[in-house]
Amino acid sequence: MKYRTLGKTGMKVSVIGIGTWQFGGEWGKNFTSDEVRQILATGRDLGINLIDTAECYGDHLSESLIGQAIAGERDKWIIATKFGHRFTGHLKRSDDRTAADMREQLEASLKALKTDYIDLYQYHSIRDSEFDNEELRDALEKEKKAGKIRHIGNSISNGIDLVHQASRSGWANVEALQLVYNRLERKAEAVFDICQQQKLGVLARVPLASGFLSGKYRRGATFQAGDVRAARTQEQIDQQLAEVERIAKEEVPPGVDMAQWALGWCLRDPVVTAVIPGCKSPEQVKANAAAAELVETIE
Ligand SMILES: NC(=O)c1ccc[n+]([C@@H]2O[C@H](COP(=O)([O-])OP(=O)(O)OC[C@H]3O[C@@H](n4cnc5c(N)ncnc54)[C@H](OP(=O)(O)O)[C@@H]3O)[C@@H](O)[C@H]2O)c1
């Protein structure tokens, strides 16, 4: 495994982390606590120390499965979680972003994770007007002083202009950003300069373009009900997969696993501290961890 320092936080994180939206049950599969334990233990044994989760991956369900799996080894992990949504049903959320909402969610996250501190507490895809709320900013700072939060991060929605929130990171005491970044979606590059100037680490989320960049899906692929990807139109799926096929032919060196290449591709620019691919099995964790070997070999 390789490690990089996450922006101003000073935390040394593995360049390959583990994304855990999947554990919330919205990817066509429910996870048992044994399955989650095996997935995380596999990552730990390969040197992975970074887990990304959120309040709304199930009603604190992903956090709760993680809390059970890492009980007794909390100090081996850097846990990033989020606030700003409430899970109200399969793929349904309400927007809960006031200072009082945040305090309530923080307590629920700490309880689910069976811990008394969060390493990186991230705003979760909130609007600019909500981000600019001084009361919320001050409430986060207070929780930091109380020791419940070590560092503040911001997972910015890909559906808005990223510049406003990225450039106001100093105002909000944000030390790291989480951005959608992968070979098919490069919008995040618009704020890489800001990240560099403000010494913000970047966590690249959706680094496999929801699994499409693994190269295992072909045009015409369909997803079962209950899988978040089933909400896409066949036209959207096929357009993306046609582009993936082109990239596989023209950019991925022969003999290199495409998923590993796609993760290594995100890490070309050192402003990207780590990728956080969602993992559904120990085998996927193993394959993704091996991508660390490709870092600095991809241009
Ligand atoms: N707003 C936010 O803050 C936000 C939004 C989205 C995601 N996130 C975070 O970012 C993480 C990553 O994004 P994501 O999970 O949406 O997308 P992703 O990482 O691009 O794709 C994950 C999917 O790719 C497939 N996969 C993973 N490793 C593989 C491998 N080695 N070989 C083949 N297939 C593989 C798995 O699905 P299949 O095997 O079923 O294909 C897995 O569910 C999330 O888990 C979450 O922690 C945050």
The gist of it:
The chain has 299 residues and is of the alpha/beta class.
Please tell me about this protein's structure:
This protein has ten helices and twelve strands. With 299 residues, it is an alpha/beta fold. The protein has one domain: NADP-dependent oxidoreductase domain (TIM Barrel), CATH 3.20.20. The strands form three sheets. It has an eight-stranded parallel beta sheet with strand order 3-4-5-8-9-10-11-12, with helices on one face. A two-stranded antiparallel ribbon has the order 1-2. Strand 10, helix 7 and strand 11 form a beta-alpha-beta unit. The mean pLDDT is 97. Bound molecules: NADP nicotinamide-adenine-dinucleotide phosphate (NAP). The site of NADP nicotinamide-adenine-dinucleotide phosphate has 29 residues, from helix 10.
